[in-house]
UniProtKB/TrEMBL annotation:
It catalyses: prephenate + H(+) = 3-phenylpyruvate + CO2 + H2O; chorismate = prephenate. The keyword Metal-binding does not apply. This is Bifunctional chorismate mutase/prephenate dehydratase. It comes from Tamilnaduibacter salinus. Transmembrane segments: none annotated.
Amino acid sequence: MSDEQSRLAQLRDEIDRLDREILERISARARCAQEVAHAKTVANPDDDVVFYRPEREAQVLRRIKERNPGPLSDEEMARLFREMMSACLALEKPMHIAFLGPEGTFTQAAALKHFGHSVISVPLPAIDAVFREVESGAAQYGVVPVENSTEGMINHTLDMFMASPLKICGEVQLRIHHHLLASADSDPPSIRRIYSHQQSFAQCRKWLDTHWHGIERVAVSSNAEAARRASEEPGTAAIAGDMAAELYGLATMAGTIEDRPDNTTRFLIVGRESVPPSGQDKTSILVSMRNKPGALYHLLAPFHENDISLTRLETRPSPSGTWAYVFYIDFEGHAEDPPVKKVLQTIDGEAVELKHLGSYPVGVL
């Protein structure tokens, strides 16, 4: 045996040893998670026990990234640990996660990124249906899109919070990569129609105008629906992502065709429980102010005075009357932080209505 072959055999033996050690460690962690679940059940025999703790998971994943020695990237290491935590949590009872469907959408990708693949993901046809599924208790959490870096806010999601009792429990930021997909036997000259969601068309407008000018563009309810149609109709293509391509067996005619390489969509996790502080949090509120001079100034001044950074300010028509508006505000910090408490108390004294939508761990790419 040559020196190279001997060294390779040694490395393989070391990998086998490490695999056995990893297996033992993961199994020990799973047993510990089972003991935690049992302790919670014993301590709360008459209550619905909450096994999933968003703030706890966020803290664990932050520590993993901080301590990661490489060579795997921080995000890849966090993904591996997220899947392990998802599998351990499912030992007690897999969670049902509602999302804006159908299957193969970016919203499903966001749900799986946040919760891991050991949950039961439930596709629903509309944002309001996701809210109803969680409100009824049929799903523990829901995932809905709220903002795209190219196209801005998704107003339907914001409007749902005006009447819904649900809380924002987390956020997911997902880099969106669009591909032009078609059946494997399709030739570019044969394509006469492209399907996609209207927002995806908007995010790929310049690329389409340059490379597929004059080809019919048909907006459908989702990118997954676009992929389904392209898989069944000869002479058609779809703009969609990797999950839809895999689900419907489509080939990539052109990849990453979005006009902006940093194209990102933010999704919200909605649930019925408030989330304790994690150490790096964001808070969302809805505020209706009295219609008087200086109303916006009085709304924003407390944030400046308490050195709290706003991350989003939007206005939506109020359902209470014509030409009345509601402010949707995201800002850094948790509602239990003393400076945030002070701000919310000040605003509450000035506002017609203040609704705390939730404080939750900051999402990262």
